Queue: 2 jobs
Job 1
Amino acid sequence: MLGCARLAVLQQLEYRFNLVADTIIQPVIVGLVEITLWLTFFASTGQSELVGFGREFYLAYAIWAAFIARLSASWMYEMQMIEDIETGTVNSILVRPISFFEYYLGQLLGYKALITVISLIAPLVICVALDLPLMVERIPLALALVFYFIVFGHIISLMIASLGFFFSRVHHLTVAKNITLWMLTGEFFPLDLAPEPLRSLLVALPFSSAAFRPVGYLTGRLPIESIYDGFISVTVGILVLAPLATLMWNAGRRRYSGTGA
Amino acid sequence: MTANIETLNLTRTYETYKKPEGLLKSVQGLWARKIEKKIALHPTTLRIDSGQIVGLVGSNGAGKTTLLKVLSGLIHPSAGTAEVLGYKPTSRDPEFLRRISILLGQKNQLWWDLPPADSYDLLARIYEIELPTARERVRELSQLLQCTEQLHIQLRRLSLGERMKMEIIGALLHQPDVLFLDEPTIGLDIIAQTTIRNFLMKYVKERRPTVILTSHYMDDISLLADRLLLMSQGRIVYDGTVNEFAGRSESRQTLSLKILQPPTRDVQILDHFVVAAGSLAIKEELPASAIGDVLQALMAMSAVQEIKIEEVEFEDVIRSFMEKDARLRAPGGAAAARV
């Protein structure tokens, strides 16, 4: 798997311009958009606090959510997995002693490690420059939860990609999933702003570990227990979805006709 | 000799969706689709011994690639069984995958964005080969294939021939015991074809892997294979040595000659051979047994300036065999009559 992680890093480094756009420009733009939204909200309502947290907390949340949610997303490799199955490129993996899941998980983690190293500087600089709440010592644990969530997200990607064995085109499902995750992860707004019982449900789901829990923890909104709960919630998610993903993959493989070669 | 590959009634059926033209039919296709089943591989029983080099020949859609895909574990058979090196291919046992290799000539298997040298490093990790050993093998193979200079250039920037050489190195890096080569020289210029053909000839002679090779270029088959399997419409229609096949098939020769006095009217020499009025040059493919009589008839008709008799190419012999087989299998043909 380390070899696959290395492959992803090498591939990203081949295209310098794309790498800068991906790791710096894109998260900065998303962060700026979210900051603008929160500034507009506080300015238009005249409020200085929302559910006990001041404007600075929300600005810090917006900046870190843009970075962390991007880190936990797996759609880039999911698209590639779908395309591999649709076009028959998956053949080159199936004939080698490595699993499709492991091959892409390795690449995904390698790619995420690279963008973490490069992108982390942007939210740090912005938080320091704007004097926003941030607990630097909490970064490692928050990132550990995000990387654990990536494994869970990758299982969902395998399930979606496996549908490619049954239907000719399934790309749009990834798009629909991304929009859903935008809300479920807490990238769009902190999940504790939702009314009960939706709030409890959203926080309990493993998806909250993709943005809400790590960002809340980093910015001082959530205690360390929420990170532990996140690990438990993601573990339950993995235990539930992994067998289902295996079933879907095996059923798909039996249908596969080796298209395109 | 031990069997490396054994199949018993191995069958593969594909399902295809047929959509009649038109917008209305497309809309109807949202809930009702006409699925058709096509048998790509009829029940096939086969035994290939260790170290054999088998040439698999047939027209497009004959079932060659399907057979290779089932044997390499890429696709599941619809019925029957297959065993390769004692493993069931679809189980994807890592030990089995470490001992086979499949090269699909029309598909890249190395990484498009990376120089081949980086891809080989990754393959070394996947196949658990020590890095120095893998690099030494790459050096040797690239020298034999005359492509050392291209090892550090992105794959996407290489020519088709160079890419194929790199794919071959990738396929052989782990020194497989069974090698499936699907059209390794397809689309290549004559120089690249010759280099690859010569390389494969040397490689299989030295390492003696079991090879199944499909190719549209008969030179590949006649030079490399010691056993020939002809496939037609999902069935193996001939299984024997290349030499036996050439001997068994009706021997044919091409007769070319120039005559001095062209005939003033059409002259019928044989049932399907007519010399047209005014012809000065004649060229015809004929059964070898008829050449003497035809020559006699032509020389009686006119003085002959130049005569050339050539053996028909192996490719033409196969084509003629396949055409005959297709005629027999066509509705109303002898094969249909037997059923």
Job 2
Amino acid sequence: MTSKSHAGDKMEILITGFGGQGIVLAGQIVGKAASLIDHKESTLTQSYGPEARGGYCSAQVIISDKFIHFPYVRRPDILVCMSQGGYDKYAAMIKETSILIVDQNLVNPGDIPADRCFAIPATRMAEEMGRKMMANIVMVGFFTAITQAVSLDAARSTVSGSVPRGTEALNLAAFDKGYDFGLATLKGRRKKAEGKKGTVDEKP
Amino acid sequence: MKPAVLTGEHFMTGDVACAEGALAAGCLFFGGYPITPATEIAEHMASRLPDVCGTFVQMEDEIAAMASILGASCAGVKSMTATSGPGFSLIMENLGLGICTETPCVVVNVQRAGPSTGLPTLGAQGDMMQARWGSHGHYEIIALAPASPQELFYTTITAFNLSETYRIPVLVMTDEVTGHLSERVVIPEAGAIKLRHRPAPKGRKDRFKAFQPGPNGVAPMAIAGDGYGIHVTGLTHDERGYPGMNVETQIEMMHRLTQKIRNNLDDIIRTESYRLEDAEIVIVSYGISARSSLAAVDEARAQGIKAGLFRLITVWPFPEQQIQKLAEKVRGFVTVEINLGQIHLEVQRCAGSRVPAVLVGHPGGAVITPEQIVDTLKTAF
């Protein structure tokens, strides 16, 4: 274990949902992409046991430039919720600067300010592609676009290497769908912000 | 077919890294019984051992698992088992046989919360004293406690090396959290991994004494079937391996079994220091709790408390000289472990009456948070 360096800036990510949604695989893809392709330090801890198979499930990923001492999320910088239960359990943990990402058809994000909340119909998009089980991959694509916690290349190649053989193309299409939705969301927000700025400037 | 050493960068769990470490060390036999949270080690060995023409046997229980790895080792093959919770209790019976017959092998315990069935899926560090004294009789043992998947890889190799050098079962005392934590694991080229082998016998086969110590206190080991005509028994035995039902033989054998460890502490004991140079309060910890402690050291220092970490990689034999030395210059010790005070007792013993030693413990099922440790650092001294 390298414990020479003091802990540096790090990003704490908490992904939550039901067991069976592929929450742990989503965490694994993010952690692996950060570690092996982006060459950062990363840790993944996950729900383990009966609760991970049907009930509430979570994956915790920490990404840092330096060796990560404590591998558990304490105040998530990014909270991803694919079930209302996950949101209800963890919304209180987030900071003022945290980003919330939700599946908009499964989670009601309460009173989280709109500018810090990003929503995607990930499960519906996966259903439209014919495989509901790819909702997690759509979400990883959306997550990658919104947070840039991992690079696009790292995320895509890790998705490709992490899904069952023969399903790579389909999963990459799911990833791209989420990623493009994320880019469009960001573009929309920028335009809105610019528009607002414009209005302010016009005021005397 | 993959090679024994999977050179490259991987993102893997501690359990898988442990299995890969065993393969890199040349392990060719795994006998075990699946049990959460050690099952992944057995699973991975079952899938990987055929790659190296090794053998995987699922035994009927952990008593048999331990017996099987001793048998494989006597036949000249590096062998291991992995278990947890109640399985570790069953290991204890034949662990004693391995110690008494001086049979090299590796036992991994991915600790979960007990006693009894306890919390099968949740981590703890409650078996540390069982590792030291769990089998009957008095003996020395080697136990290592890695703190990351990368270290689990290397520590498992070290465990095999020490078991070969000292002809003793070596325990890898990891925990559920480290076993299931995924992190980058860098596996070096096969040539860069230094492997040790049990001392081989020399000279005439008919004059060979199976338990006559060599220069470092360890007897060369004949392989069953090589024609040395050896007798291996759990009864008290002399240098030839013959049972001797008398006090003199017992004294002589116990001297051999204990001195080979006690006289080689420098080779066996591994520790690591973090920000210890000017530390006034020293945290003593191991395994996953050492990771909580690393974070606590930084957080305490940011609040003006001069804390440092003395991390045990070798827990048994206990690094008592190092702790005694630290006790001469620090204000206090804090032992951090997921039990209600086991290694803490050793730290207290070594600190003596010079400085206070307190515990940050936990009954099991969760990791200790850095905040809990910092709170104690603030209030206890």
